[in-house]
Amino acid sequence: MRWLRASGFWLLVAAIVAFSLFPFYYAIVTSLRPALLLFEPAWLPGVPTFANYATVFREQPFERNLLNSLLVATSVVAIAMAAGVTAAYALARVHFRGRGFLLAAILAVSMFPQVAILSGMFELIRMLGLYNSLAGLTLTYMVFTLPFTVWILTTFLRELPHELEEAALMDGANPWQTLTRVFLPLMRPAMATTALLAFIAAWNEFLFALTFTLTNEQRTVPVAIALMTGASRYELPWGNIMAASVIVTVPLVALVLVFQRRIVAGLTSGAVKG
Asked: Are residues 31 and 111 in the same domain?
C-alpha cells in the first residue's frame, strides 16, 4: 500500500506541474511555428523558425518597451524596499499609539481594486506633470507594491528575537545601526521574497501602464503586447504575441530560480547560534 500511496502522490504532482507549465510550453511551440500553421494544433513546432521573434523587434520598439519595464520595476523595488524596511522596523519594534490602526490602514489601501482609484491617480499624475513618463508609472505602482512590502517585512521583524535588539543597544548601537547592522542581514530571506513579488507585480502591471502612457516609446511590455495588431485592424498576430510573451516570461523564470536559491540559503544558514 505504501508504493500505491507514493505513486498516487507523484502522479498528482506530475498532473499539477503539467497543468501549470503547459500554457508556457504551448506558447513556446506557437512562437516557433510559421504564421500559416498557427491554427493547426501541434505538440511540437516541427521545423522551428525565429521569424516571429524577429518581427516583434522589427515592427515596433519592443527593446525600448523591455527597457521601460526593467527601469520601472527596478525603481519600484528599490523605493519599496527602502521605504518598507524603515516602516517595518518602526511598526514592528517601536511602540507608539495608533500603531495597530496605522498597520490596518496600510493593509486597507491594498484592498481597493485598481479601477476604483484610477481616476484619482490620473488627476494626481496629471497635476504633477508626470503623465506619459516612467516616473509617473513608478509613483502609481507604489500604491499596490508598498502596502504588502510593509506587511511582509513587519511580520518577519516581529518574529526576530528581542534579545538581538537589546544586545545591540547595550553595545551602544542607535536604532539606525541596529536596523542596518543587526536586522538587515537576518532579513535577507524576507527581503528577497518581497523584492521578487514586487518586481513581478510591477513587471506584469497592465491597467496603470495603459492609462498613464500615451506613446509607444513610454509603454511597458504588457501594454505593448496587448496593442499588437496584424495586417488589418481586426487581425491579431498570434505568433508575434506568443513570441513576445515568451521573451517577457523567460527573465521572470530565471529571476525566480535565482531568488529561490538565495531564499533557501538564507533560511538554512541560521540567525542565532548558541
From this structure: no
Closest CA to 263 of 190, 176, 201: 190
d(CA 49, CA 228): 20
The CA distance from 156 to 153, in Å, is 5
- With b for 16 or more beta-carbon neighbours within 10 A and e for fewer, the 91-112 pattern comes to bbbeeeeeeeeebeebeeeeee
The parent domain of residue 69 ranges over 60-269
**Rounded Cα distance, 185 and 36, in Å:** 55
Model confidence at 271: pLDDT above 50:
no
- Dist CA 67 CA 134 (whole Å): 11
List, for residues 43-75, the tens digit of each pLDDT value: 787 778 888 898 888 888 899 999 999 999 999
pLDDT digits (tens, 9 = 90+) for 241-253: 888 999 999 888 8
**Reduced DSSP (H G I as helix, E B as strand, rest coil) percent helix, strand, coil of the chain, to 5:** 75, 0, 25
CATH code (residue 207): 1.10.3720.10
pTM: 0.84
CB atoms within 10 A of CB 63: 11
Residue 101 shares a structural domain with residue 202: yes
Closest to 203 in 3D by CA, of 225, 227, 228, 220:
220
Euclidean distance between CA atoms 30 and 239, whole angstroms = 6
Q: At what angle do helices 238-269 and 188-204 cross, to 10 degrees?
A: 170
* Nearest alpha-carbon partner for 87 in 144, 155, 141: 155
Considering the domain architecture, whether residues 43 and 84 belong to the same structural domain is answered as: no
